[in-house]
Amino acid sequence: MKFTVNRTAFIKELNDVSRAIAARTTIPVLTGLKLVADANGLTLTGSDSDISIETTLSIADETASLNIEDTGAIVLPARFFSEIVKQLPDQTMTVEITSGFQTTITSGSALFTINGLDANTYPHLPEIESTNSVSLSADTLRQIISQTVIAVSNQESRPILTGVHFSFNGNEFAAVATDSHRLSQRRVTLDAANVNKADLIIPGKSLNELAKMLENVETVEMQVTENQVLFSLGKTLFYSRLLEGNYPDTTRLIPTESDIQVTFNATELLAAINRASLLSHESRNNVVKLEISETGSKITGNSPDVGQVEEALNVKNYDGNALEISFNPDYMKDALRSFGNIDIEVSFTTSLRPFILTPVENKESFIQLITPVRTF
């Protein structure tokens, strides 16, 4: 194998693929980057067995200036190879297998020699043969991920909760995540109405990495099989394993009625909670208190060792009884950030029951739920 390529174009693809490569793994070959050069171009593959990413630099891509002299394949140690490529002195570089699996990288006056591995020992990527596919706007998918992945659990004791539950039914798409203390649910109506019914649970880690790759993509094609999902982002393929098991029925967790409804601007409320949490973070409990009544609303943060903060809130609309409720400010900040600068309605029942946050407009499309903290 021997090829010459524009280093900037190569690094862009290398960065994407490197997201899937683990620094440590029980399968040593997976710490490597697989390179395959053929008549059509250069394919880069990275995997940690949970996530696999494959992308191709086409011979027809003028910006890549790719010239393949000899076809072939090799697996190179990803960390060393990546550091070498990023520090080469020239705009172009040449990679060549010289003997066995020994590989040279040359650029300008620099020449590196590193030891590779047999590409045949690299695990094959899953074969996705599925008629169950759906097209999504990349912007919509990125927004859905950012709004739901905040609520996935970090506790491996309940693995099913470390993922986001995606469900498709006709042209209805719902995504929900919960760690049992909070919940985030987003619903979207798709343009295409021919989507088969499907339920899948995608690890939050996979979705976080996927979201970072959606910036310059317009449309994402999603294909589902029994234990894998494939996201096609143009010339890049992103595979993720699915979590096995049944996701809890979260519909029964969301209150259908409320006694108190308060409207805030999400950005203003977020800023106030940020200030209140400056002191609450110093407290062992990390709790802030919200007080709501006809005469006004205020947020309070308290740390016995440091002091107390109290701030009046700007309420845009209020309907219901007086209430005092305490909650984890970090959960509330994550929820508020996901709305952006819009007006939201916060609906309460009692000081010990979960409360929900929804956009003032189109309330059914997006729900954030937070469980309060008992302080007595």
TrEMBL record:
Family: Belongs to the beta sliding clamp family.
GO terms under biological process: DNA strand elongation involved in DNA replication
Function recorded in the entry: Confers DNA tethering and processivity to DNA polymerases and other proteins. Acts as a clamp, forming a ring around DNA (a reaction catalyzed by the clamp-loading complex) which diffuses in an ATP-independent manner freely and bidirectionally along dsDNA. Initially characterized for its ability to contact the catalytic subunit of DNA polymerase III (Pol III), a complex, multichain enzyme responsible for most of the replicative synthesis in bacteria; Pol III exhibits 3'-5' exonuclease proofreading activity.
Subunit architecture: Forms a ring-shaped head-to-tail homodimer around DNA.
Natural source organism: Periweissella cryptocerci
GO cellular component: cytoplasm; DNA polymerase III complex
Molecular-function annotations in GO: 3'-5' exonuclease activity; DNA binding; DNA-directed DNA polymerase activity
Domain DNA polymerase III beta sliding clamp central: 136-249
Domain of life: Bacteria
Start and end residues of each DNA polymerase III beta sliding clamp N-terminal domain: 1-126
Domain DNA polymerase III beta sliding clamp C-terminal: residue ranges: 252-373
Record key words, sorted: Cytoplasm, DNA replication, DNA-binding, DNA-directed DNA polymerase, Nucleotidyltransferase, Transferase
Subcellular location: Cytoplasm
InterPro entries reported in the protein's UniProt record: DNA_clamp_sf, DNA_polIII_beta, DNA_polIII_beta_C, DNA_polIII_beta_cen, DNA_polIII_beta_N
Name this protein carries in UniProt: Beta sliding clamp
Entry keyword annotation includes Electron transport: no
